[in-house]
Amino acid sequence: MIRIPALGRRDSPWVPMYKFLFALAVGVAIGYGYGWNDAQEHDKNVAERVIERIGGETRERMGNDVDTRYGTGGK
Predict the structure, then answer these.
(1) pTM above 0.70, yes or no
(2) How big is the CA angle at 24 (ends 18 and 26), to the nearest 5 degrees?
């Protein structure tokens, strides 16, 4: 049987770890709920929408095709 050491003691060095894991679990649950609701409302995910909003106007100027940039046309 697995024993969790000093789970009920406040002076235990394990208490901060359990608090951190609890906070992490709550954050994951809230984030999952937010992501689920967002996915039901939108076709694109959050990252795609943010990139479209921020870099949508300059995307054509930021291409990385060297052949097109220097006019060789892939020859």
Answers:
(1) no
(2) 105
